[in-house]
Specification:
single chain, mainly alpha
Length: 198
Amino acid sequence: MQKLLAINTSVARVLVWIGGALLIASAFMVTLDVLLRDFVGVTLGGADEMSGYVFAISTAWALPYALICRTNVRIDALYLLVGERFRSVLDIFGLILLGAFIFPLTWRVWWMLEDSYKFWTKSITPLQTPVAIPQTLWFAGLLLLCLTLLLIVTMSLTRLVRGDDVGVRELAGARTIDEETQESLSSSGSSSPISADR
């Protein structure tokens, strides 16, 4: 399962980079469209529509990586007051609640996608975009999120049964202040506050 998670992480990381590149390209396209419209009186046409598709796709593609890196926001006021074992249970319960929302959502998106392909629905815009194309990319991100969630919950439950609370925290737990501080120091090229002062 660890190997599956590693593969999943690699795929999710690639999708995050692609999604980020698409967002930057979309921002340039919208900026260019606004400038052309204001100063030349022409428009690229469809910049707003394409940027909407890009935003939906890049968001869905970022979710699996956010889950793996445990960057999803949590309210941990009471979480920090309980013992390690109960935290592990809360971590897994939180992921199960997330799944209770994500799995039905993804299933409904599949139904919508199926209809879009069946009737080859097009957007009611000048571009006449076949909506199945952006919907497929959006669905792919949600599907990967479901697979990632299923994998992390399964691995976390296995570790919980073994009594490995540290392992559960590393997979599903809320990020600690120490972890976030260490990551910030690493990204700035400093390994510790002492080395940073030097």
